[in-house]
Amino acid sequence: SLYPRIDGISQLLATIDVFIYADNKINGEVDWYGVLGVNPLDTEDVIRKSFRKLVLMLHPDKNNASGANGAFLLVSEAWELLSDKTKRSAYDRITSLHRSQHNVQPQCASTTAAPPPAPAQNG
Amino acid sequence: MASTAAQIHLIRPSFAPNPTRTTSKSGFFGTSVSFTTPKSSLPRLRKCSNRRNHSLRVAAEKVVGIDLGTTNSAVGAMEGGKPVIVTNAEGQRTTPSVVAYTKNGDRLVGQIAKRQAVVNPENTFFSVKRFIGRKMIEVDEEAKQVSYNVVRDDNGNVKLDCPAIGKQFAAEEISAQVLRKLVDDASKFLNEKVSKAVVTVPAYFNDSQRTATKDAGRIAGLEVLRIINEPTAASLAYGFERKNNETILVFDLGGGTFDVSVLEVGDGVFEVLSTSGDTHLGGDDFDKRIVDWLALSFKNDEGIDLLKDKQALQRLTETAEKAKMELSTLTQANISLPFITATADGPKHIETTLTRAKFEELCSDLLDRLKTPVQNSLRDAKLSISDIDEVILVGGSTRIPAVQGVVKSLTGKDPNVTVNPDEVVALGAAVQAGVLAGDVSDIVLLDVTPLSIGLETLGGVMTKIIPRNTTLPTSKSEGSGKKQDITITGASTLPSDEVERMVSEAERFSKEDKEKRDAIDTKNQADSVVYQTEKQLKELGEKVPAEVKEKVEAKLEELKKAITEGVTQVIKDTMAALNQEVMQLGQSLYNQPGATPGAGGADGPSEASNKGPEGDVIDADFTDSK
């Protein structure tokens, strides 16, 4: 929407976002939530949606721009971790974030009042 | 290079036990992997730079999707935004993956090759997919089950012996012939040159089987843009127009392999969660059970082992396949094989009935083997059966009621029947071809390759990287982040110079083929011209002016002579000359009531004789009896 006439601007922005968040360290760990453009409190469904959106923009079949492949790999790595309940809660523990929400059943809204999905960083 | 040695340096994932991890810019879960395989990394690099240079330039050329099956193959293409099956020259939607060489050296591919299998068992190659990219020691069982001779070459690789032309083929070469026909037929159907394709392989194919399949493409003069897994392709076809989230299980029982994949589909993203299978199990095995049963009872009754008789074996196999198919809809099949062999007492026949129950009993252990991969794939995907929304059946063998029964009992679900199990893989390959050609924008495939390491990393990047069956030296290395080496050797792919030789050989053959076809067509056309002209002359009789008739007859004789001599270019020229005279004849008839025949004779062949560069001497193999 910035310069609608320049092709692939949103792809480029997504790529840059991914790299910025990948450099962001929390307790020595990469900010994987940030990489996927979501919040640590988001449900798995929200994270999945955001992951898919990014994948459609960054996958090598879709995007030949330099850096896109690296961003794609980071996004994949983030999803690999956050889609796994065990790995996600271990990660949350290390980054000392919201331990209680994710130890039980992360995507089940009935455990705690699940917070409304926060706006993703990049549309 | 007869064997590939892949060296993988990997740093152990050190996430949970070791928080002082450094950033890794690539790889998964802190695993950075680098390949030093010359064979698989070089083409990949080249590919990458190609992509960059020509990025975003959408080629107008059609990319097709090819399901290169064990028993049958199919081709799909995107037409009007939808994947469709491309019919072959015979008008069929699938083509038997069969290649044969006749005694006079003619090559037959597809249905015509399959049809003559009984009379030419040693030179008819089928189920070649079971041998592609394999070492001889891996396929001992399979080698015994085919009617042609499977031999071991100096490298321990599989070669297929063809006594008709005194040659030993690599499985790649035979598959290349099938690919060649598929692509030629597709070019005709689509009215477009086809030189690029996405080819599918069983998910459980290893690296050398994949590389060998790619080599087959190259030998066929085809650029294989991507190798994708068959169950994944099936899911692409199934989910192509579905937008909702679904977790699906693809159950793919083909002619020679069995694959199970679990996928999550939604928002255009197809993510493979797990894959499992059995490379030595397929529809052929079910046929084999019937063959063995028939042969055993014949041996008991007559004391003759039919399995030693290649021709009888081929007839048994064909009949078994037919009976198996019949038992998918009927509860019993009649088997009738007259004159299956002969003894001193005279000819022997097989006349019996196979019930569905008996068939299921014969195959009970095969049916049992279907269970483990399904359970493994669910376990690997960390899902339970209740998480599966749809079960998709792929491959002709899923028509067997007992197979469907196993699926139902394993999953507690009625399988989805909206897809055609014979076509869905080719359709899905066409979808991926569309993605690569830029025709399909809103779909992306994230696949895992269960056994492979090198080949699939481009594009299909979501590899779980550490191959399932590789034993990692884990002692003392837990969380230490130490560099480790795994060496995988003994890939059974062809040395690259041998592939080059096969490529040029195939090109030569394809030229010869074209010339041969041209020779036959020309001769048939000439025969028809001779017949038509003679008929016309006879019918017109006295109406034809003598001088015109003389000229026509002279040219006619010339053409007849040319046909017997069989030189294509000469036939073409003489035919053109004759046509000129016949035209003159028409003219003279037209002008008859009045003026004399127009312009004094034609100057022989003019523009009609295009002496092309391919005016070489060709011997047509067909000689008509005059």
From TrEMBL, chain B:
One of its GO terms (molecular function) is ATP-dependent protein folding chaperone. Residues 507-521 have a biased composition (Basic and acidic residues). Residues 616-626 have a biased composition (Acidic residues). Keywords: ATP-binding, Coiled coil, Nucleotide-binding. It comes from the Eukaryota. One of its GO terms (biological process) is response to heat. Residues 306-333 form a coiled coil. Residues 507-527, 589-626 are annotated as: Disordered. SUPFAM superfamilies: Actin-like ATPase domain, Heat shock protein 70kD (HSP70), C-terminal subdomain, Heat shock protein 70kD (HSP70), peptide-binding domain. Belongs to the heat shock protein 70 family. This is Molecular chaperones mortalin/PBP74/GRP75, HSP70 superfamily. It comes from Heracleum sosnowskyi.
